[in-house]
Automatic annotation (TrEMBL):
Protein name per UniProt: U32 family peptidase
InterPro entries in UniProt: Pept_U32_collagenase, Peptidase_U32, RNA/ubiquinone_mod_enzymes
Peptidase U32 collagenase domain segment(s): 381-504
Pfam family, one: Peptidase_U32
Amino acid sequence: MKKCELLVPAGGERQFIAAVENGADAVYVGGKLFNARINAGNFDDKELTDAVDFAHKRGVKVYVTMNTLIADDEMKKALEYVLFLYEIGVDALIVQDVGLGAVIRENLPDFPLHLSTQGSVYDLRGVQMAGRLGYERVVLARELSFGEIKEICQNTEVEIEVFVHGALCICYSGQCQMSRYFGGRSGNRGECAQPCRLPYKSFDEDGRLVKTFQHPLSPKDLCLIDHIGELAEAGVASLKIEGRMKSPEYVAIVTSIYRKYLDQFYEKGSYIVTAEDREALEQIFNRGGFTEGYFYENPGKELMAGEIPKHRGIKIGKVVKKVQGSSLIDVKLYHKLSIGDGVEIQGKNVTGNVVTYYKELKSGLTRIGDIKGHVEHGDPLYRISSKEQLAAARKTFENKTFREGKYLRRTPVDIEFCCDEKGFAWLTLHSALTDKEITVKEGPFEESRNRAMDSGRIEKALRKTGNTPFEARTIRIEEGIDRIIQISAINDMRRRALEQLEQVLVLRRSGGNFSAYFISEESHGNTLEFYFYDWESFYNYVMPDDLNALDVDKVALIPLVDYEKHYAEIPREKMVLPYITNISKGEEDQFIEAHFDAICEHYRDRGIYIGNLSWLQAFLAAGVPVYGDYGLNICNAFSRGLYCSLGLGHCMDSLEILDDGLGAFPLMITEHELQGSRLIDRKKERIKIVRRDFSSQVTLIPESENLEIKKIKDKISEGKMIIRIYC
């Protein structure tokens, strides 16, 4: 069985070193351009080159994220950056934009591509389509169960990557518009402001307040430490830890624990996670505990963090009283607390500090300080940070850079040393990281008249690998070397051999260039599309007079399942097109599978809008006209050209480049069953929760109509071919 890779995030040099030193098989990073964590420290070109070299000398792979959508005017710069990454030896690119991916595949076919979780792939059909597009690995959506993951792994040659630890998005990755809509900062462009972590009030259809979480869109962090063996057995290629915004201490602790149990699984076939390691994971970061997400089933309310969307720490005691006239409090402790630990009292008010005063009282209580702010008897006390834990983690990466330091992780080498009949000494290095044999020759050396050289002295010299990335695993020395070879000469041979091995392991590529082309879609006359979320909204819609008066073709879009259920009620002369929801996992897919032949027969002349990779090939192969919907996230001519070359007709732009004023477009699509009918945020923005009887998902849309007739008229006069209004 091929061993499963442990893939670890790094937002900077210290995180990168922490990842490698604590056992990562591969590290994923972002550069300064085109990555979905643009606010992380990230790596400039020199730092990235050094990081790749540092990793490769230790047998660690480096993947670079270019997992944002690329605009037409950015493509030239993006491709120049791709070429730089190719030349410095990056092992793979993690890509969201399929247009970018298509150009890379066409021009740099030996540069491996991984489709990001932003690609919204959630089933075997989607994985197979990604494979057809040239992706050798797919990062699955986080919403899949173990059974679904296993089925995919068993039926595809495409490598599968699965998140096992870290922050969860409440929305399917790649389909979220919340941050862009409310703050102009798009997650698909690397600038997510995390509005899902903000407080919202929930209301029912009649406007009554629904009692639910203060932060109803904020999930706990994922933790699958108990299931990494199952995932490895199922055929998952890579276990991914989330967290390019996290501290190096976080990276060190989480990596070391997952490394420990993945190794135990391969050595013993099973493992049991200790209470200490569980606590260590919670101590470094948790949002009110962890969740296993959708690993076995929809977790419902257990998915959510609840009242506190940030790190919660570990509950270690409670407040008994505040010492009058001071910043000291008396607490009852259940767990260890030390000076230097960070604490928080999470009562009606949240307050805390670093513990600078600690005294055990005769009463059995403990007096601590300096705690400012109001606290009350019974308020829970949480340890937010452990000085001891952080200090231990820092030992693995402090005082180390990509170029120097006393490294823990080294590449084992096998060394052979001998002398030929002409008096030349030969040193040969072997490493599992390369098929190339490194050989250094020195001499000739004078024959010894007394006795053979002491092999122990030779071995001692050969083992002095110092601060290099290497350590001697085995050393074989020819017996009875009867030449006078100075130890300094042996040291020099060792240094030269190790330097040559370093050069061999530093991967460089050349010869790449780009000569891309794309296929333009056919032009059509002006068309006004009206996108309806369900049959009821379509049936009851009254078109504004200003829109009705426009001399353009008008097309209604309704869900495919609703179209099928009301097929006989829709006049054939009316232009109504069906669409498959961008995320159709569950009930919608089951309906399509059960009625596939009838659906193909019904729409072979009319066509279907499809917004996910999963159904494209099936309908194209059946001869049904397919139009690309907004869920495909088409932001440039290259993406549009790719889909046209596959046989799609018109392709709708991504919501990323949709102007405001065109209706209530989707903000989120989620598996989580939210409470109530609407959410209202602190600024009184209203969000409608859309539930559809054929769908397993919930969609969030703005409750305001947000329709600007003048803008629509302007677009028509500008010659914009297809304008869509979300109703």
